[in-house]
Amino acid sequence: MINKLISQILPHMPPQLVWMFSKQYIAGETVEQAIEKSKKLNDINVMTTIDVLGEFITKLEEAEANKREYINVIEKAEAAGVKGNYSLKPTFLGLLLDKEVCYQHIREIVQKASAYDNFIRIDMEDSPCTDMSIDLLRRLKEEFPENVGLVLQACLKRTLADIKALAVLNSPEVPLNLRLCKGVYDELPAIAYKEYETINQHYLEDLEYMLQQKMYPAIATHDKPLVDGALKLLEKYNVAKDRYEFQMLYGVTPRLRASLVDAGHPLRVYVPFGEKWFGYSTRRLQENPAMAGVIIKALFKKG
């Protein structure tokens, strides 16, 4: 309870304090640092997805600059031989300012990735963005069927229906690539499950439907019971190891990550970097209240 209270207070504290938590979960502030960390992960048989941190911009000029930054990231990561793909947040590219401008920016980024036979993951943000993000996927899949995928959040009550609606984009030749996560945004009980067991139950139901339809699930979780449940489903449906992957966040549950890699499961780590790390970091704080408590204790010991 105390740790949870601390995690709610820390986001309102000075950035220098929050950085004490953040640096464990962020690859750095520059693309060079992200590439360096990605290559080290590649060395231990872990793929990556690089993300430029930032969201909810207020000017379209920012969206243009952010698009150029993504193009630069792709060019540098490909030149360095990183074994990984890329993730982006639509609001970082203007989704809430001009949907068409956002689409065109993301299209250019996907086009750049496709030139390297690579892939862009559209991250899912809070619920006002859900329908717009799904629409982006539908449009982009028409032109780049193998180079774009989406994230869906198991905590939202609509998610299984969304997966079923998106099944029309799935085919044996090009399986629909969806990252399934629990979701970290604070949504209203009317639209989101709140209880741990309920969220886990729906996560596994969503995953099972994806496997039944022979989609390509990116199983994004650090929760051991969910990992175990996913492994049982993969065995139940005899899923080949080139038809799924596990995904985890940079700096989180390295032992669980290593156990999956050692067992031969494909695994990808989300590698975020950039100067706009505050929003991402505070969500990690709220997701992991115990870490917030550790930080405060360390501060008092130093004092």
From TrEMBL:
Task: Give the molecular function GO annotations.
Answer: nucleotide binding; proline dehydrogenase activity
Return the broad EC class: oxidoreductase
Q: Per the UniProt record, which EC number(s) apply here?
A: 1.5.5.2
Q: In which pathway does it act?
A: Amino-acid degradation; L-proline degradation into L-glutamate; L-glutamate from L-proline: step 1/2
Stored Pfam families: Pro_dh
**Keywords in UniProt for this one?**
FAD, Flavoprotein, Nucleotide-binding, Oxidoreductase, Proline metabolism
Q: Which cofactor does it need?
A: FAD
- Single biological process term from Gene Ontology: L-proline catabolic process to L-glutamate
Q: Which residues form the Proline dehydrogenase domain?
A: 35-293
Q: Where does substrate bind?
A: 89, 283-284
- The residues that hold FAD are 124, 153, 221-222
Which reaction does this chain catalyze? L-proline + a quinone = (S)-1-pyrroline-5-carboxylate + a quinol + H(+)
What does the record note about the cofactor? Binds 1 FAD per subunit.
Q: Does the keyword Cell cycle apply?
A: no
Protein name per Swiss-Prot or TrEMBL: proline dehydrogenase
